[in-house]
Amino acid sequence: MKNILVIHQSSELYGSDKTLLYLFSKVNTTQYQFVVVLPSEGPLKQAIEKLNFPVYIVPVLKLHRKLFTIKNLLQLQKDFKQSIKALKKLHQKYHFQIIYSNTLAVMVGAIISKKWHIPHLWHVHEIIEHPKPIAWLYPRILYKYANSVICNSKATKNNLVKRLPLLDSKTTVITNGIDFSNYSVKETEESSSEMEQFNISLIGRVSRLKGHRWLIHTFEKYLKQELKLHLQFVGSPVPGQEFHEAEIKQLIKAYQLENRVTWLSFQEDLQPIWNTTHLCVMPSTEAESFGLVALESMRAGVPVIASNLGGLKEILEEKGTGILVEPNNEKELAEAILYLYKNPNVRSEQAYHAFVSAQKKFNLETYVNSFEKAFDSIK
């Protein structure tokens, strides 16, 4: 059995958090023992513990935009000492054979892998283009401090390799996979005339790049005359970035759309949301490395409209599985929404093709098997 130290950057249940749960839910526990390190308490910790994997709260030396202040740098120094001490004790107990860092944000795995001569697998979930010095630096850190690099999409890999071609030799793409075992495609789709309300859901982090503003501007300019259309935002901002949510809510108020928008904070169980959603939109203004919400929407039988960027292009690349629109194009986004709203047969056909495509290309078994091969091959 291989003992694997897993280091992750949060204890929430957004995209990169869920990928860990999906992996843990099906991995062969007779061959791999995971010991998980998280920076805080939260729903991810609780969910992992239910799967009977040990979880420890330890500083993970997470990189963030506000790191380079005197206060935060002093805290980083303190966290570094605490982290190394705690991880050394865990290594003495479990004798780790692999270190698995999940996301670029965590740096402690890179440090201890070199210090203790343990193979390091680094799983990249980010497409970093700005600031340019950081975008230049990360591929070089990966090349030096990772024995193997896993990217969650071709777009993620291409963003790294174009900046450092040498990285190509140690980088593999493993696209995310989810469990389809308890799902089946919807048989019919009711017409808009039969509905009291047509719910358009944007699910995910509240941030500058998820497209909330683009969608609201589009709604105000092109869609508000369709009285059955209703927006549903589901998600919370990163702690410390609550101003994004405040600005978006102020925009809703300025447009007098309060009665046309429902706002829900982070939801651990999204199934009730999918049950009341007629259309999922992912109007990202910057490239998503993957876009797990699109995949979950396809599994739920909900049609998807997404930006023609990054990993979303790979999820919806097959014709008829979704609609891709150019980023920040309000008119094109509005036309796509109205087209699906007014054509229930198209919604039904898209939901069917999307479900079949996603089940074939992004199933959990393939995802877990690919990771097991990666764990077995790392040296």
In short:
The protein is of the alpha/beta class and 379 residues long. The protein has helices spanning 15-26, 43-50, 70-94, 108-116, 132-145, 154-161, 212-223, 243-254, 271-275, 292-299, 310-315, 330-342, 344-361, 364-377, and strands at residues 2-8, 32-38, 55-57, 98-102, 120-124, 148-151, 171-173, 198-203, 229-234, 261-264, 279-282, 304-307, 323-325.
Overall form: globular
Mean pLDDT, to the nearest integer, reads 92
Helix content: 40-55%
Multimerization state: single chain
Descriptive key words:
single chain; 379 residues; alpha/beta; six-stranded parallel sheet
Structure overview:
- With 379 residues, the chain is of the alpha/beta class.
- It has helices at 15-26, 43-50, 70-94, 108-116, 132-145, 154-161, 212-223, 243-254, 271-275, 292-299, 310-315, 330-342, 344-361, 364-377, and strands spanning 2-8, 32-38, 55-57, 98-102, 120-124, 148-151, 171-173, 198-203, 229-234, 261-264, 279-282, 304-307, 323-325.
- The strands form 2 sheets. The chain has a 7-stranded parallel sheet with strand order 3-2-1-4-5-6-7, sandwiched between helices. A 6-stranded parallel sheet has the order 10-9-8-11-12-13, sandwiched between helices.
- α7 crosses α12 (330-342).
- The chain is globular.
